[in-house]
UniProtKB/TrEMBL annotation, chains A, B, C, D:
CDD domains: 4HBT. This is Thioesterase family protein. It comes from Pedococcus ginsenosidimutans. PANTHER family: 4-HYDROXYBENZOYL-COA THIOESTERASE FAMILY MEMBER, LONG-CHAIN ACYL-COA THIOESTERASE FADM. InterPro entries: 4-hydroxybenzoyl-CoA_TE, HotDog_dom_sf. Pfam families: 4HBT_2. Transmembrane segments: none annotated.
C-alpha cells in the first residue's frame, strides 16, 4: 500500500518590489514567484539530467486563484509543486503558495501551469522521454481544488 | 435586432524589458500587459464615475493561454477586452491580445480575470451598483474559447 | 551664429506597476523608463542605419538624481535626451524626465548613462564610425547639472 | 590602532527574469538587487531599532558602474555594503556586487546611493539621531573607486 507522498517544497524569496501601490504582493508577481519555483525546483528535479529540459519547455497556459493577501517579509515563502497531468508532449504543474512559518498554514494562492516540451532547434513539440515521464510520475499528485473556475 | 457590438480595444505599449532571455515577451509579462489594459480601459469605461472602482476591485483569479510568441516592437499591441460574466459582487473580464498592425490578425494570447468588488474601508466584498452593472452589460460578450482548459 | 538646438523629446508611457508600496514611481523604475526612452529614441535617431547600433552597445554606467515624486497617470511622461560626451568608443547620454503636461515644467529626475560600443562577435569594444559621431554631434548638449554628485 | 573592519555582506538571490534578451542580468535589475540588499541589510543593521528607518528614507541619487556580465544562477550573489558619507540629514551607501562563490573574486558592479532621512508625516527632511549616526559609523568605509565618473 502506498504511503501518501510528501509534496515537494521550494523556498522562494520575495522582493520588497513585489508589492504594488496597495502594499500587497501584486497578483502578477505571484506568477513571477511560480516561475522562480519552477527554475529552482526543476534544477533539483532534473539537474542530474538537464537534457530533459534544456531542449526547451514552453508555458502554454496558467491558471491561478488568489486566496489571501501576502505582504513582503525577508524569509522566503514556500511553494509546493507537483505534476497533475502527464501527457505525451507536456505536463501540468500544480502549485500552492504557502507561508512556511511554523504554525502558519495560510495558502496565499493555488495555481496550475501547462508546460509543453519543445524542440527549439526544429520549432516543433517533442515527445516526452520515458525517464522524464518516470521522474514526473514520482512527483505527481491531486488536481488543484480551484474554487472559482467556471463550471 | 441587435447589431453585433464592436469589441473594446486598448493600445498597450510593450517595453523592451518585457522580453526574457529567450528573446520573447515573457509569459508573466503578458499578465502585466493585461493589468495595463485594465488600468487604461477602466479609466475610459468608468472614468466619468470613478467611484465604481475607487472603492476597490480585487483580482481573484487569472486564466491565460499563450497562442503565439510575441517580440518587442515600439508600436503598441492591442488588447480587446469585454465582460463575460456579471455577478452580484464581481465580474469576469475577457481579453484577446492581438497584433494591431493592419492586416495582421495574430492572437498572441487569450485570458480571463475574475474581479471582485471590495470595500477597502470595511474589508468586505460589496454589491454591484446598478450603474456599474449597466456599464458592464454594455461591454459584455462571448465566453473565452479556451483550448487547453481541462475538461 | 548657432541657434540653440531644441532638445529631443521621447514620450514614455508609465505602467501602474511602476509604483511601489509607497505609491510613487519606484526609483529603480526610473532607470527602466530611461531604457524605454533609449529604445524608442535610438530607433528614431539611428533607425535609418541600424547597423550603428545592431552590432552592440553596452551600458557601462548610470548616474541619476531624483528631484520630485512621480505618480502613475495614463498619459506618458516626457524624457529629454541628448549626448554630453562623444568619445572614440562610446558616448554619454543625458536625460531629463519631465512632466509633459502643458504648463507643468516639473523635472522628476536627471540622469546620465555611459554607453560603450561593443562588437558582440569579437567581444571587444569597437571604434565609433564617423556617421554615428556625426549623428550624435547633431544631438549633443550641455552637461547634466547634477546637484548631489560629491565634489 | 584600528583593525580594518570586515565589510558587511548580504546574500541577494537572483531571479531568472533578471536576465534580459541579451541573456545577462539586465543593468536596471542591478539597482533592484541593491534595493534588495538595502532591505535585507537594514533589517539586520537597524532591526533592533526600526524607528530610525520607519519614519522614512528617500533615495536621492544612484551611481553605478558595470564591470562584468552576470548570468543567472540559483545561488545568491553577495552585495558588500558600507556607509561612505554621513551627513546631518542623510548618508551615502556604497556597494560592491560580488560573486560569492569560493575562489571567485569577480566584482560585477560598484555603486553608491545617496539616502535622505525624511519625515513622511511632515514631508520634510529630518536630522540624523545620534544612535543612527553611531550605527552608521560602525559600518563606514572607503569611498567607491569609480572608474568612469567624469573628472
Amino acid at each position: 500500500m502506498d504511503e501518501p507522498r510528501e509534496r515537494y517544497r521550494v523556498n522562494v524569496p520575495l522582493r520588497w518590489s513585489d508589492m504594488d501601490a496597495y502594499g500587497h504582493v501584486n497578483n502578477v508577481q505571484f506568477l513571477r514567484l511560480l516561475e522562480d519555483a519552477r527554475v529552482i525546483g526543476f534544477e533539483e528535479w532534473f539537474g542530474q539530467d538537464r537534457s530533459v529540459l534544456a531542449e526547451g519547455i514552453l508555458v502554454a497556459r496558467h491558471e491561478i486563484e488568489y486566496l489571501a493577501p501576502l505582504l513582503f517579509r525577508v524569509p522566503p515563502i514556500v511553494v509546493e509543486m507537483w505534476a497533475t497531468k502527464i501527457g505525451g508532449a507536456g505536463f501540468d504543474l500544480a502549485y500552492e503558495v504557502r507561508d512556511g512559518h511554523a504554525g502558519d498554514d495560510t495558502v496565499y494562492a493555488r495555481a496550475e501551469t501547462t508546460l509543453v516540451l519543445y524542440d527549439f532547434a526544429t520549432s516543433t513539440p517533442r515527445r516526452m522521454a520515458p525517464d522524464l515521464r518516470a521522474m514526473l510520475e514520482e512527483r505527481s499528485g491531486e488536481p488543484v481544488p480551484f474554487r472559482w473556475r467556471r463550471r
